[in-house]
């Protein structure tokens, strides 16, 4: 249970007791004996570690609150369960802990038969047990109770008329504090009026458990913005405030420092200082900038400057610049609102998608005005530049001197970098006039509705946005700062390669030639600082493509590469040349569900293989935008890595070589 010490700050809430920053509440979800196995006592080794944590908190002047969550399966009327509960808390008390919490949040309201016979209501059962435990522990000065109805949205029928809360307020002993999260589980704002109502029902000021910066409910979100939406005037209606922070310690610098600023204002207000600013009156950007810059400098000083080598180039690790830190926070601001950089990204992408007809092939039969086209391209340029800024930020985080920030925040910035790679490629593809004007499938909703934060909202604006398996993957074990770009194919991308056949075009003609000649709008290129490192080629409608190929492309290739050319000899040369002389078709049963085809290639030395996924996703986005309902690709049975890669992205085996003239496995997925 090393997690007891590791998670001193990341997992559990901080609290202000009696309006001083002095309390730490222990209730990590990865301590199984906190909730699931609450009846079990700690082993000798676990005891020693928990005692060390209690002593460490005491040495730092913190009140250590031990929380237990027995609500999932406790039988309130069982003397055995009550004895086990007392035994568990007595064990912790013997370790030096003098403050406790009983949590009955997020559980079913139903009771077993024996509890129904023993208690008049669910609230009556909880209050009875809480009161007995409170007395058993000697009525400690800090004893917290988290009700099942812990916010306004969970109260039935309302806060003031909830039988559950009325029972808690009437029967719970006055020395026990009641936890409350506000109007919602994650409350955007807390108002004195709403808390006054709760105080009246509970017959005591509530203790706020503030989830504003909690991110354990979404693995793609982190909240770096300030503590806000809680005016200092709340003090008269509160017994205290717990701040439930981000799971990642380094992400909490601004939340905790702005909480301190808020607390200072509360004290100033309590002294009658009428000149103190209310929380919402503080200019957000200067506050954010000052705290962020100070935080980056403060943390980075604890790391020495080291030299690192990447592709033979040495560079020093340096702190993030103030502009980069502000961009980082703006991208990961708060659960109910984005910072300006994120807002601009979403607004531009939404507008570009809605107005793509201005630069599409047919534009629904109407030609857009030059001014509208120019506006679209100007806004696209701004969006692409913003995507590039995020890519540069990703590289700066990787090479930052603050390695703790890197390891805490890298999964988030890496995820956003990859999602924006796809979005950028999509906008570039639209800018080439590749869209046929088909409907682009998006979902309109409030920004905080979808999981994933900014990455999730950008994802949902893409045609394949509902396919979560294309976007949600763990980051690589070894971060790299290399810059990548996905763009449409250009003629300059053609290179001469040696082949079995002594013709410089042969490999390109055999692998990609038909696609590049007949449907180049579905050809995307992946590049890094050194040049092209991958490509993805698609065919929107294989059936019509095959007809065009038979009519024009293959005859030209047969003239260019005769089956028995002069100077060519050997079985291998003859075999590869036959590629252009064989009939290549797919059964109608396949093309009915999977009308599109793709081919993906990447250099084996590609450092971050996740960008291959982004490349494939960008191509699927283009195909889906123009109406494709499914796509397939051919893979050699011996290519296990490619089979695994595609399977993780939702591809399934639909056709084997015996059903086709050529060897190979056909994998497909619906769009």
UniProtKB/TrEMBL annotation:
It catalyses: 3-O-(N-acetyl-beta-D-glucosaminyl)-L-threonyl-[protein] + H2O = L-threonyl-[protein] + N-acetyl-D-glucosamine; 3-O-(N-acetyl-beta-D-glucosaminyl)-L-seryl-[protein] + H2O = N-acetyl-D-glucosamine + L-seryl-[protein]. The keyword Hydrolase applies. Residues 1-267 form the GH84 domain. GO terms for molecular function: [protein]-3-O-(N-acetyl-D-glucosaminyl)-L-serine/L-threonine O-N-acetyl-alpha-D-glucosaminase activity; beta-N-acetylglucosaminidase activity. Coiled coil: none annotated. GO terms for biological process: glycoprotein metabolic process. Residues 1-16 form the signal peptide. Its EC number is 3.2.1.169. Keywords: Glycosidase, Hydrolase, Signal. The keyword Signal applies. PANTHER family: O-GLCNACASE, PROTEIN O-GLCNACASE-LIKE. This is protein O-GlcNAcase. It comes from Cyprinus carpio (Common carp).
């Amino acid at each position: 249970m090393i997690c007891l010490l590791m998670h001193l700050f990341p997992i559990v809430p901080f609290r202000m007791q009696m309006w001083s920053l002095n309390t730490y509440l222990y209730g990590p979800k990865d301590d199984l004996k906190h909730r699931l196995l609450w009846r079990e006592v700690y082993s000798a080794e676990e005891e020693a570690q928990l005692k060390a944590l209690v002593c460490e908190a005491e040495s730092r002047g913190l009140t250590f609150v031990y929380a237990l969550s027995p609500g999932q399966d406790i039988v309130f009327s069982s003397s055995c369960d009550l004895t086990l509960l007392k035994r568990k808390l007595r064990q912790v008390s013997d370790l030096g802990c003098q403050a406790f919490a009983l949590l009955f949040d997020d559980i079913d309201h139903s009771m077993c038969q024996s509890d129904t016979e023993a208690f008049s209501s669910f609230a009556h059962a909880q209050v009875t047990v809480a009161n007995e435990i409170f007395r058993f522990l000697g009525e400690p000065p800090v004893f917290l109770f988290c009700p099942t109805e812990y916010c306004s949205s969970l109260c039935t029928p309302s806060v003031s008329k909830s039988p559950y809360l009325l029972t808690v307020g009437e029967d719970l002993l006055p020395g026990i504090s009641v936890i409350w999260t506000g109007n919602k589980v994650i409350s955007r704002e807390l108002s004195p009026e709403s808390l006054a109502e709760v105080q009246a029902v509970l017959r005591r000021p509530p203790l706020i458990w503030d989830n504003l910066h909690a991110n354990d409910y979404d693995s793609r979100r982190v909240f770096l913005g300030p503590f806000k939406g809680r005016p200092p005037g709340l003090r008269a209606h509160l017994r205290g405030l717990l701040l439930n922070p981000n799971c990642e310690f380094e992400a909490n610098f601004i939340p905790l420092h702005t909480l301190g600023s808020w607390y200072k204002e509360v004290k100033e207000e309590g002294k009658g200082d009428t000149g103190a600013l209310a929380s919402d009156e503080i200019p957000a950007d200067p506050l954010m900038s000052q705290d962020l810059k100070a935080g980056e400098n403060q943390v980075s000083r604890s790391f020495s400057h080291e030299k690192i080598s990447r592709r033979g180039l040495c560079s020093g690790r340096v702190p993030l610049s103030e502009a980069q830190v502000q961009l980082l926070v703006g991208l990961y601001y708060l659960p109910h609102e984005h910072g300006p950089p994120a807002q601009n990204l979403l607004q531009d992408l939404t507008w570009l998608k809605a107005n793509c007809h201005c630069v599409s092939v047919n534009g629904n039969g109407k030609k857009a005005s030059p001014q509208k086209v120019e506006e679209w391209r100007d806004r696209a340029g701004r969006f692409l530049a913003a995507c590039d800024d995020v890519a540069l930020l990703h590289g700066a985080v990787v090479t930052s001197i603050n390695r703790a920030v890197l390891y805490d925040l890298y999964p988030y910035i890496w995820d956003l970098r990859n999602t924006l790679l796809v979005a950028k490629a999509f906008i570039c593809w639209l800018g080439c006039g590749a869209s046929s004007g088909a409907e682009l499938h998006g979902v309109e909703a409030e920004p905080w509705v979808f999981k994933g934060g900014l990455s999730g909202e950008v994802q949902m604006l893409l045609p394949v946005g509902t396919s979560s398996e294309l976007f949600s993957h763990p980051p690589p074990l070894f971060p790299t700062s290399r810059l990548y770009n996905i763009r449409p194919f250009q003629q300059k991308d053609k290179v001469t390669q040696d082949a079995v056949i002594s013709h410089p075009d042969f490999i390109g003609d055999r692998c990609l030639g038909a696609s590049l000649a007949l449907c180049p709008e579905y050809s995307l290129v992946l590049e890094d600082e050194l040049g092209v490192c991958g490509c993805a080629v698609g065919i929107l409608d294989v059936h019509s493509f095959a007809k065009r190929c038979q009519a024009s492309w293959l005859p030209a290739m047969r003239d260019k590469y005769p089956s028995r050319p002069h100077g060519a000899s050997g079985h291998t040369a003859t075999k590869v040349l036959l590629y252009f002389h064989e009939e290549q078709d797919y059964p109608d049963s396949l093309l009915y569900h999977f009308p599109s085809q793709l081919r993906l290639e990447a250099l084996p030395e590609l450092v971050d293989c996740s960008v291959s996924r982004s490349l494939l996703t960008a191509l699927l986005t283009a195909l889906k935008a123009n109406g494709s309902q499914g796509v397939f690709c051919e893979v050699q049975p011996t290519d296990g890595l490619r089979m695994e890669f595609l399977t993780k992205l939702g591809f399934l085996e639909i056709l084997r070589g015996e059903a086709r003239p050529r060897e190979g496995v056909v994998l497909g997925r619906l769009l």
